[in-house]
Design brief:
about 150 residues, alpha/beta, about 20% helix, globular
């Protein structure tokens, strides 16, 4: 899996102060997407065990209390990302007590495969649906267009 950006401190992508990882790879390629540079699974840098360890360390850093991890992209549920995203969310739930996980995907919840649903079992908030430029609304919280749905899973 590749990633395009990692922010150890972020207040824009989910509730509270968070760590945010933008993964690479997206089959949806929505018109008007603000993150087109992440569409190719080969874009950005290789996600390493070292970065996974850094994310865990950042989430557990008590100097700045973080509410959780946000996974965006690209698409964390892109087939090329499943194994490493699953490993990361399992680690966060095991090693970061009280941290929530938010995940953005262009897939609808009803479209998810068994392997994608396995990831969903570990997250707390799912924002699903493709970005639709005609439904874009800058006043929406946590979504780019009004068709996207926020599922609070826990």
């Amino acid at each position: 899996m590749n990633y395009s950006k990692y922010y150890p401190i972020d207040v824009l992508n989910g509730e509270g102060t968070r760590c945010t990882l933008f993964v690479s790879g997206c089959i949806h390629q929505c018109r008007g997407c603000y993150n087109q540079s992440t569409w190719s699974p080969d874009a950005g840098e290789l996600f390493t065990e070292q970065l996974a360890n850094q994310i865990i360390e950042d989430l557990n850093d008590q100097r700045i209390k973080k509410q959780g991890l946000s996974l965006s992209g690209g698409d964390p549920l892109h087939p090329a990302n499943i194994a490493q995203v699953l490993s990361l969310v399992k680690r966060v739930k095991k090693e970061c007590v009280g941290k929530d996980i938010w995940l953005w995907t262009g897939y609808k919840k009803s479209e998810l495969t068994a392997s994608q649903l396995e990831i969903i079992n570990y997250i707390d908030v799912l924002i699903d649906g493709k970005f639709v430029q005609e439904l874009a609304d800058p006043n929406l919280h946590w979504r780019g267009s009004s068709n996207q749905v926020i599922h609070r899973l826990t």
